């Protein structure tokens, strides 16, 4: 009887630990986005918001909105943002640290203002990224990552967009 109770207790404890590794999460970050255009480059600070569902400690699905900043470009000024969906695969390398990679699809938008005229270009691209997350406790984490949002051709110019993001996560 004691053996049966011990086995049930261990099974319940194990399932509780596993429950902490899945579920919904949200977060925000500050990004440093680098835009490379025709050999020139500019870096701008932006913000991002994301939310996702962690299937287990190794796989998650995530949606993201990023405002990548405003900068001088071939026109008066340009602004960029991106909406993306990704699959994230991770591996715990320590009790409180996970390395992860992401692959996904981004809808990148560039808003260009020339004088009193504003127009927008939208391009859909694959994205890829690598990062790590330090788990402060069951609910909070700090993560950093590098993301390549691809090359976007607009009016004969090729924009290459890469980011470094540093942010916080909250798991429910």
From TrEMBL:
List where in the cell it is found: Cell outer membrane
Q: What is this protein called?
A: OOP family OmpA-OmpF porin
Keywords attached to this entry? Signal
Write down the Pfam families for this protein, in alphabetical order.
OMP_b-brl
Identify the stretch annotated as signal peptide in this record: 1-19
Record flagged with keyword Cell membrane: no
Q: Where is the Outer membrane protein beta-barrel domain?
A: 6-172
Q: Which InterPro entries match?
A: Beta-barrel_OMP, OMP/PagP_B-barrel
Write out the GO cellular component annotations: cell outer membrane
């Amino acid at each position: 009887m004691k053996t049966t109770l011990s086995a049930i207790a261990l099974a319940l404890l194990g399932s509780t630990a596993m429950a902490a590794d899945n579920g919904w999460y949200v977060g925000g970050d500050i990004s440093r986005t680098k835009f490379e255009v025709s050999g020139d480059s500019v870096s701008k600070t932006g913000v991002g918001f994301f939310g996702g569902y962690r299937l287990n400690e190794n796989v998650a699905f995530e949606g993201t909105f990023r405002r990548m900043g405003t900068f001088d470009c071939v026109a008066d000024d340009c602004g960029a943002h991106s909406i993306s969906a990704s699959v994230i695969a991770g591996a715990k390398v320590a009790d409180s640290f996970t390395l992860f990679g992401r692959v996904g699809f981004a809808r990148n938008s560039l808003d260009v203002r020339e004088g009193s005229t504003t127009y927008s270009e939208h391009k859909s691209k694959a994205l890829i990224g690598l990062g790590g997350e330090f788990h402060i406790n069951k609910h909070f984490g700090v993560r950093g990552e590098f993301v390549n949002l691809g090359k976007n051709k607009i009016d004969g110019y090729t924009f290459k967009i890469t980011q470094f993001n540093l942010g916080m996560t909250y798991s429910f």
